[in-house]
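User: Sequence recovery, please. Input:
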């Protein structure tokens, strides 16, 4: 897996700014491994999420400090995740399709999510199932029990496709579960790192008149020492 230099951070951030979160995640995977750029969009979602967790751990370390607001009292709830532990919960699907009654579905991919988002389907869940149906009647019966059974079967087959966290508020003791979007989380770290690099460039350019390329060519230790002297 390719390491992330300061120049890489800026290039990744600049390319990803105009993209949707889904595409930013795929861009990051392609940056880390050019081979993934070709086919990551067609990976089952669990494989993609596991790869993004591994990528986060490799680039930024396994610790993932996070926070959210309690839906009951509104207090800030802070917690920490471990990217490697989350990735380790992934089970490689034995089968890439599931059968429920007379229907057969393949596991959804990033390309499927993008197609549903662009199509503007009134029901994203139903639209995704329609796209992933590879066997059975052409019209998917929108029966709540049937849909729930299909979604449960897909979740069992690919448990890391949707990351959900069990949370508890220390203030009011409210317990709830919430979705965790690794793509947005990874991108937030990329953006924060890019901002720090740009501030370093700005600080050293102001002090010494160096160009961006001059600053990025410095080792991390030298850059830190120059910044320390400027701020002294």
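Assistant: Recovered sequence (232 residues):
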């Amino acid at each position: 897996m390719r390491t992330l230099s300061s120049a890489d951070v800026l290039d990744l951030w600049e390319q990803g700014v105009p993209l949707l979160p889904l595409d930013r995640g795929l861009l990051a995977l392609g940056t880390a491994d050019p081979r993934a750029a070709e086919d990551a969009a067609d990976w089952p979602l669990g494989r993609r999420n596991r790869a993004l967790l591994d990528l986060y751990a490799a680039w930024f370390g396994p610790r993932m400090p996070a926070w959210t607001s309690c839906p009951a009292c509104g207090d800030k709830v802070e917690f920490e995740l471990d990217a490697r532990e989350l990735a380790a919960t992934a089970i490689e699907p034995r089968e890439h399709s599931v059968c429920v009654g007379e229907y057969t579905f393949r596991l959804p991919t990033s390309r499927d999510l993008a197609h549903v988002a662009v199509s503007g389907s009134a029901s994203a869940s139903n639209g995704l199932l329609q796209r992933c149906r590879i066997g059975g009647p052409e019209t998917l019966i929108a029966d709540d029990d049937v849909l729930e059974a299909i979604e449960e079967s897909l979740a069992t087959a690919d448990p890391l496709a949707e990351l959900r966290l069990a949370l508890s508020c220390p203030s009011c003791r409210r317990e709830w579960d919430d979705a965790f979007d690794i793509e947005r989380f990874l991108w937030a770290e990329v953006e924060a790192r890019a901002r720090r690099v740009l501030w370093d460039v700005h600080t050293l350019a102001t002090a010494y008149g160096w160009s961006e390329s001059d600053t990025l060519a410095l080792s991390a230790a030298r850059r830190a020492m120059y910044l320390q002297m400027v701020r002294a």
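The two ends are 37 Å apart (CA to CA).
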